[in-house]
Amino acid sequence: MDLFPSGEFPEGEIQQYKDDNLWRITSEEKRALERLAKPMYNSVRQAAEVHRQVQKYMKSILKPGMLMTDLCETLENTVPTVISKNGVQAGIAFPTGCSLNC
């Protein structure tokens, strides 16, 4: 993704453990396991960033009276544009689900 050329995605808000779970911070073994999970966390953050960008774009183009098929096609075509750097390897960040509430 062009916004994060280093491949490191923003962490967002991190909550500290407290009370009975404080050992997760103080345990050397837990800290080592946490370091091993960093690549997986970065992949999840990338998916979240794709979702955020696509959602922001879709909100900007939504208009009353738009056809649902046009909306879905635009959404389906926007995801590959956002993940173009990794192409098929990155896959689809989320499937299109669509319902009309009358």
UniProtKB/TrEMBL annotation:
Keywords: Aminopeptidase, Hydrolase, Protease. One of its GO terms (cellular component) is cytoplasm. GO terms for biological process: proteolysis. Signal peptide: none annotated. It comes from the Eukaryota. The keyword Hydrolase applies. GO terms for molecular function: aminopeptidase activity; metalloexopeptidase activity. This is Methionine aminopeptidase. The lineage of its organism: Eukaryota, Viridiplantae, Streptophyta, Embryophyta, Tracheophyta.
